[in-house]
Design brief:
84 residues; alpha/beta; 3-stranded parallel sheet; 3 strands; 17% strand; globular
Length: 84
């Protein structure tokens, strides 16, 4: 079992990474997997990449990418329709 939280912004995450025992540089994102949220993708993709996060944008991850992300990442971000 793991904790799931909503974070208000990146600065909050960066301020709390020590207290939450996570590495804010070990993130994975699934951004716009249905490729119909162009504005969302344009807004967030560069921010995720600038942080050195791995992820997919404009397409769903492969099963292997998804499993590796769950195993290796401290932060997992989903930006798409429904609950992912």
């Amino acid at each position: 079992q793991c904790a799931v939280s909503r974070m208000p912004d990146f600065s909050f995450l960066e301020e709390t990474d020590d207290t939450m025992n996570l590495n804010a540089k070990k993130g994975f994102y699934i951004l716009n997997p249905s490729s119909d949220l162009v504005n969302t993708q344009n807004r967030f993709e560069s921010s995720f990449r600038e942080r050195g996060w791995m992820g997919t944008a404009g397409k769903p991850p492969t099963q292997e990418e998804f499993l590796k992300a769950l195993e290796d990442s401290d932060i997992f971000v989903y930006c798409g329709h429904n609950s992912g």
